[in-house]
Amino acid sequence: MKDRDSYRTDRLLVVDLELTCWDAPGPPPGEQADIIEIGIAEIDNETLEIARAGRYLVRPARSAVSPFCTGLTGIAPEELKRSARPFPEVRNAIVSDWAPRHKTWTAWGQGCELGLTAVYELRWS
Fold it and tell me: Is the dihedral of CA 99, 101, 106, 108 positive or negative?
């Protein structure tokens, strides 16, 4: 199998996602949680040290960043307006920069179902 031949077992990608959030249970009417940041650390499996790390800001498409969310994540709406890109662009950059299809990866945290969907897109794009 072609992909199996290029699969790297010496690296692990650890993906951390930040999503839009609110102090009330659930989003306001008409909004849904969006990924606003994807952090990635590549771990060397022999030394267990971080080989490299990166951060990608994602422009939310279905919700706004609340003051509660800014307080929790440190990500302000102004920063996203200035520096964030749509998810498809971020996905393409991550696929190009990290080759996630050829490495083992893991993610965790709240919003795991959204996170796993996003990571699946990163891995198999």
Answer: positive
